[in-house]
Amino acid sequence: MAKGKGSGSKGGRSAFSGLSVVASAVLLFMVALPTFITLTVGLLPSLVAFIFDRSPGRTMARCVFGLNFSGVAPYILEVWMQPAQTVGGATQAVFQPLALSIMYGAAGLGWLLYLAMPPIVANVLNLSAQRRVSELRKKQRGLIKTWGDSLIKEVDRSGN
Amino acid sequence: MAEQAEDQEQDVSNGAATEPVMDAPGGGAPAPEEPVETPDSDDVAVNAGGKSVEIGNFRVFLDLRMPEFDMGHCKAYSADNLRRDEGSAFALVTDPVLPTRHDHLTFLAGMHMAGQIDLLDYEIAYWPPIGRKTMVLFYEKPSGGKVIAKESKKLPIDEHDIATVVVEPLMNVMQAFSEKGLAHRNIRADNLFFADPMREKIVLGDCASGPPGYDQPPVYETTARMSAEPAGRGSGNVTDDFYALGMTLAELGIGRQPLKKLNDQEIMELKLSKGSFQAIASQEKLPLVLIEPVRGLLCDDPEERWGFSELNAWLDGRRTKPVQANTEKRAARSQNLAGRDYYTVRSLAQGISKNWVTALGPLRDGTVEIWLRRGLGDNERAKALSDAMRQLQWAGTDKRSAEDVLVARSILILDPSGPVRFKGFSAMIDGLGFMLSYDVQHGRGPQRFADVIVRDIPSFWFGRQEGYRPDVQKQQQLYKNLRYYIQQQSAGYGYERCLYATVRNQHCLSPMVEEEFVVDIADLLPALEKAAETASEESWPVDRHIAAFIATRLEDDVEGQLMAMQNPSDEVEYSRAIISMLAIVQWRHGPDNLQNLSHWVARLMEPAIKVFHSKARRERVETEIPKLAKRGNLVELYNLINDEQERRKDQSEFVEAVAEYSEAESEVFDLESSGPARMELAEKVGQQAAAFASTMIALLTVSALFLMHIF
Fold first, then answer.
1. Is the predicted ipTM greater than 0.85, yes or no?
2. Which residue of A has its CA nearest to B707?
């Protein structure tokens, strides 16, 4: 019941979050349509990632979004810098091949970062474990050198 | 002395030389006439008087036998006292396979007692004719010679002088012995010597050279003790000496040994059927003057037998209470066993012991019980026999053994004062130790003794004794220990422990030191030092005999070491226990330098070094051992491996090291076996890190753009 309640509250928060995004989007659509168009087109990979990433914490989506947003941010600023924010101007700026390449390329980098980071961490952890094992083996060799085979026998005996 | 030696040489040439120089151990074949050349023959000097050997303060002439001073199984040799000019001595060489009597030697050595031959000294020495060490007793030579001469047929002492010449000195000796709680047990006419050339006083001969009563002719022993084997006749008490005195008087009165024409069995039967005195009186002609004391002294009931007061009264010419000739109750009808009729319980007991197998039938079918009830009217004995038979029915699977126990118990029911008899074994309760010693050293082995103890026959003997007797109580306490020892299998116990616990002068029978005739524990290590010269590398310097010998003779308690020796497979504890025992002996009795033994022990210390776990400590001990072995000090060697503080430190450090090693091993195991988990963790952490990095990049980008716009 508690679980149900918990998941209900989580679902509620998620729904609330989604609703707030939709509400923000609607508000943005109504107040700043050029910005909305730039964001919608630029953050399309993040949108797709958020839809398809069902993993807990949605780390992949967050990775893609972070770098995707970094790629979109300059164009948002460019839209905001124009004296008259028009849909045409925004559309023209967004649909430039270079702009699209930068925005979507940044999203791709985010995805690559997501793919590359776990093996790197794994290697770091493995190396650390190997170093520890080697340290422990050295310590054991030292003990055997001091105490001789009787140490092994005693360890075996107590182990049995 | 030279003159005496010459005289002796004359004696030898006149016939004594035809006798063996010295019986081989155990009374075997005569030794060669010429002394055997031995490794120790350097000690044997050849001088004008012939070959001689120096033993302590005496020079003993090997080729000057003195047959007239032979005492029992021991041979006498002429000896010269090197420290004293006056008086003359002779050496009595004991049989190395028969134990001497410690209490008697210590009591008599160096002491002058009227009526007893003076024991000047005694030594353990190498005796060339038998090629091994044995105990040699040095006695003052009685100047009057032996009382009973072999050739002479006339009475050596006038019957009217016997009281003053014989009885008075002998009473003095018996009094002195009984005050010490001892019995002479060697009183016989053959062992009497004239103390002076005038032949006015006699002295008693040796009593310490062999087991008590061993040399006594059976007729000199009470019916109880003559049923036992010679070596097992037991220490006895003063009443046994009185009995022997009675027979001595009879022999002196008759001029020859009473009942000599009869064999042992006939003497026994005659004594049992008629009583000792009647047995003598019916066969021999006793002088009138001796009838009264002989009757009193040969009384078969020890309670009724004459003692000091009666003898004193007789010496003073007063009349004494009459004694009953034969107290043995005779049955109205006989009990037949193996074709012979028996009328008294003791003769039947003797008959059963001689017909062990056939006796079982009449015992089991109740014939003997019925005979006791109806023929003898002895319901108490009949009931005891019936109880013994009832116990046979409760016997488990070992029926044969239970039947043997029944026979042994039946004998004790019929003759409670007699010896413990079990199959061929027959020894008085106070002669068990000497009997064991005899069996072990004469090839019979300890099995008979062990059988008796394991089947607890002596307990039944104690149970059959009536009234309180301090000597029986003492024996009972000793027996409890024997039973405990024989039940233990490990070194330091067993029959070996029984042997050394019961026979104080038993030399150590370990093959390593037996030739050295080690009686005193102080001589053990020097003997082992000698044995170490030829000892094999694998052998241990302490075997079962030496362990038992040390356990018995050493003043200190070595039970802890014996416990450790129970498990020879635990080499560390076993070797430590052995080294510890030897070190204690050296610490107590020396000598300070035992190089060969130390090297022997050092070779065997390898397992003991293992008490240290640390390699550094072991190496230190290993380098120290040869240095200490060179100094010949076992105590230092032992201390080296038994430094308690160092051992404790080593142990605690070892325990810590084991814990550390185990911890490391377990961590390594965890690290090596946690690959998949680590991969999972790496993926999770990597993804989170990527997300975090991405977010940070976004924030930095936005911040940078914002700042660029501003500036």
1. no
2. A77
